[in-house]
Design goal:
Strand 3, helix 6 and strand 4 form a beta-alpha-beta unit. The radius of gyration is 17 Å and the shape is globular. The longest helix is centred in the C-terminal third of the chain and has 15 residues. The chain has nine helices and four strands, in the order H-E-H-H-E-H-H-E-H-E-H-H-H. Strands 1-2 form a two-stranded parallel sheet. Helix 2 packs antiparallel against helix 5, helix 4 crosses helix 5 and helix 7 crosses helix 9.
Amino acid sequence: MYINRFHLLKLLGYSVITTVYVQLEFEQGHSDSLNYYKKLIDYGEITTFPLEIEDLVEMSNVPQSKRASDAELSCFVVARRIGGKVLTDDRKAINYIRQHIQMPKDTITQLVEVLIEAYLADHLGDHELRSIQEILENNKFKIKFDLDREAARRRWMMDEKC
């Protein structure tokens, strides 16, 4: 929402799905986030994916914890069932849920990885990564390294392999 780059997910070939639990979490949050979310739903950018009985059973087998919400847990369960990826930056939730649900490491990604992937696919440039990092930091989303340097390093490493 803050960086206004949701379209990158589609450019990278991702289809974004969510669950009713995510919607409920947005409804309990800030109105700006809820309005942004609803707009994406209305425009068909995000599809609400139905949970099946097996999903609910699997969710109930994970002990309730403040480290992971039902929204995050439902996304992990659905991603595992359909062979998709989970996009979350909540490291505590990732670690907690992975204790209870076995998923390959490459099926969980974070915003930084999506931004670097977009850079490597030439959808973002160095200056855009710097600007995005600044915007995120101004909104209390700290990245512990220089995003543009890390993306350039990864591009260089890819080029070296060729």
